[in-house]
Prior knowledge:
alpha/beta
Amino acid sequence: xxxIFAKRVLALAAFALLATGVPSTAQTGPATAISxxxxxELKKQAVEGVEQRRKLxxxxxxxxxxxxxxxxxxxxxxxxxxDILEKNGFTIKRxxxxxxxxxxxxxxxGSPVIGIGxxxxxxxxxxxxxxxxxxxxxxxxxxxxxxxxxxxxALNITAALALKDIMQRDKMSGTxxxxxxxAEELLAGKAFLVRAxxxxxxxxxxxxxxxxxxxxxxxxxxxxxxxxxEYSFHGETAHSALAPWxxxxxxxxxxxxxxxxxxxxxxxRPEQRSHYVITNGGDQPNVVPSEASVWYFIRExxxxxxxxxxxxxxxxxxxxxxxxxxxxxxxxxGTAAPRHFSKPIAEAMQANINxxxxxxxxxxxNLFAKAVQKLVDGKQEGLxxxxxxxxxxxxxxxxxxxxxxxxxxxxxxxxxxxxxANIPNVSIHHWSAAMAMATPIAHKGIIAGAKVMAMTAxxxxxxxxxxxxxxDYFATVQQKNQKYVPGISATDMPQIQMNxxxxxxxxxxxxxxxxxxxxxxTYLDQLGIKFPAITKP
Length: 537
Ligand SMILES: [Zn+2]
């Protein structure tokens, strides 16, 4: 641990600034400049405010875990969160960007406007009881939080409520704007929020994402941006045995497209990642399929190569249609820009990370973590014990996954905070990543994250130079080599019908397992799980 204000000189400079007539408090207008001693005091109070909300954080985390809702179907989750925020004085706008489960919650007035976001959706087929180190589903075949998106809003709200107390008491200028990452697991939400102008008056975005350490980064991020697009082919049915020559097979077109892409992928940059699922392969073998569809994710590390590879996929789809005398239509389902994070804000956040440090894990928590790591053949090193240094712009980008926070990061200065609510070395998009997500590990991880969030927001509220520097970095450094290329057009629509059938099927069963915080202290208590349960009885 080291003090963020090691240099007295800084404090004196800030004091001098104050003495020259910068207003110390204001209802509206620019951020409120204060001395670094005063800021340190406010941060201490914010940390206390977060500590006082440990119970609330645990309840929110466990409750959202128990809802386990897929992309675009986060109805229980959104209702629960917005009710809490509304009761706490936030003004809620629901159904933003044409997405029924998206919302914006505002509190405060004036600048800076700080956008605080985190994802809320879960993943198919990852239903898992928490706190046990073996595979056991809550509801067979149901969706589950196999990544840990149940924890981010609990963190954000905990931090926001602690901040609100301080801002209200000190009549600080500033607005908190909380928002959800809807359908992040489909990479199908945030670009629509951007297009709808959700971030129009936002000065900076502090985004949180579940991880296994407390960390942040600046610059281009390892990983990819992507386009999610479904190609549908339209032909003619016929009797597959009696008169196959009268049919035009849409399934043939899908197979030809996939073959074409699989040949072509060898001649693309190794940074590309692409994958597909056949979403419609026809009805039955004795009817030539007149309709067939294949859904592609096309990923690359920069805007130019995403566009280039998308054009290749379009051409192959078009050629497949011509080979089969079918017609082709395409539908954009989602997109994610490659991520780029703000250096000035990340540096401020890192100082707070260093001050907060990692949670002190108990022997039981480490025992559980190691058991889960063993179960999935991960390195058995237990929970994170060492902070990582601030991750800086990599010399060469490594390919990998995408997150549609990328679109936000090209719209407004943004940083992402990863917090240690999960176990290192588990497999994500997998039930093993759900095992810790309603246990003391998750609860401690979100408290650590909430402290960093509240402290960093205080930096933005009271040190206007960080906001100015972030805007300058965004304009002159971030956009030097490439500018935002939105993956969606003005007419692409959010695919809000997706996952409805699946959730309609599973929700009645899942409902029986919703966390009842009035009756049970924790979700583990409700499920009768004695943490940590290491061996299957
Ligand atoms: Zn995620």
